[in-house]
Fold SCO4226 family nickel-binding protein.
Amino acid sequence: MTQFMDIHHGMQGITADQLRQAHEADLAIQEEESVYFRQAWADPDSGTIYCLSEAPSAEAVQRIHERTGHKADEIHAVPLMVQ
Amino acid sequence: MTQFMDIHHGMQGITADQLRQAHEADLAIQEEESVYFRQAWADPDSGTIYCLSEAPSAEAVQRIHERTGHKADEIHAVPLMVQ
């Protein structure tokens, strides 16, 4: 499993409820692709969402996002992490 | 305090040690600007680093990154989060 950061643009004005609903839609079907969404952050001003997951591939992440109606604009493996 | 996601480009080939050293340099002086770096993720292939912090402003985040020699290319407030 690799960590991925995916990015969605054009989400200006997204609310906390909308972010939670989108995330919960992903969580509801994620196991069908062995994807595990960990966290997501949103900037309503620039309309950007950052979404962190663990998954077997970027394609698996995208399949979940496509099925829930919010295809990612970019998906990058982020194999390195510090905290 | 607001959460911020900052992004660094052009870091192709960054190693785990280099990411950790950069993060530790930030941690060492972060309190001088009341910035708290939480996590960072790196994609050595695209050369992208994503860095999550809590801070009073984007300018405070940038001042720390500038002093440690790795100015961010983008800094976005991310007031919304789910996990």
In short: The mean pLDDT of chain A is 97. The first strand of chain A starts at residue 2 and ends at 8. Chain A touches chain B at residues 3, 5, 14-16, 19-20, 23, 38-46, 48, 50, 52, 76-83 (CB under 8 Å).
